[in-house]
What does this fold into?
Amino acid sequence: LMFKNLSDREELFIPEVDVSVRLLSKGSIEGLRVRAEVVPRHDLSDGYESPDSVPRRDGYWSTYIVQGRCRTFMDLTVTVDRKAPSSPSLSSSNAGEDALAQVTSCCVEVDYGCYGPSGLTRHKQHIVLPLSYPDASAAAPKEIQGSGGDDQAFSVYSIPTHLLHHGDDPLDVIEKYVKPHIAPGDILAVAETPLAIMQGRYRHPCTVEPRWLAKALCKLFHPTSSVATACGMQALVDVVGPLRAFFAAVAGVLCKLFRVPGIFYKVAGPQAGLMDDISGTIAPYDKFICLGPADSEAFVRKVEEKFGLGAAVVDVNDLSKKTKLLTILAATERLDRRLLYKALLPNPAGNDEQQTPFVLIRPTPS
It folds into this structure.
């Protein structure tokens, strides 16, 4: 992990670093032990020399001064194993093994101090790590059959993956999980939130500092909106800029007087409608504000070039079944959009914890 001083002139101290880990599992985590080991790697920094002659292995963080535009590093190791039973028995051993097999991921919280011209301030960063990977060749995708426009028959395959995170390359994930199931003529639909997560486009609320504008604008929206909280609105303001957010709100209020809804989202841009506030996606990302993906058009072109697939990035959820609405953020040329709508409106990927961010749509030859 890297710490970088973004200031050009100011020097900042990092006096302490603490790490905590939260396990996520399909069952109970009783009988499991999780440990996080931090090793300062000031020897890899591009500023001052390390205060440690060799990297420390005792968990102690030596205070380090990070020069302007410089970096320092640390190694982080997370270990999950079974607790040693007080009275060893075969049953307790088997229970521990079962609990270990059910662990799916962990969320690491790095809490560190920053000391400088602004005094001592506390900061947090979060890292989501998958710990369970399904066998891509053995996992059979779920098949649903249906018919589209002009009675075009099709099959839909929801493809499971591990819990995606910021370290995943979307094309590599498709290579691993989707490619074994591809057939000529298939269309690949990619859910927008998992794509954004792989791009690292999510923020914990503790890293968002709501300004007065965000605090004022968020009160204009229905409580269920993702911009109805100060942090949610500020996350949007940080993307589109305060002027655009302000004028979008003004336009939205004026148009509401004439019973014209949705103008804020049109003026503020697509990110306003794609963003999910906390609780908007699966654990542990339900604790984060998730933005919409970036460069969706470029992404679908890369999918087509590498895999020969028609591809689309879509925003669809369980409400689509009732509203008959879904959003296609990007799609390759010559893609049958009527077939795409018909196949995806039932939301075959699901909204819960299915972890099926990819859906293959396979037209059935007549």
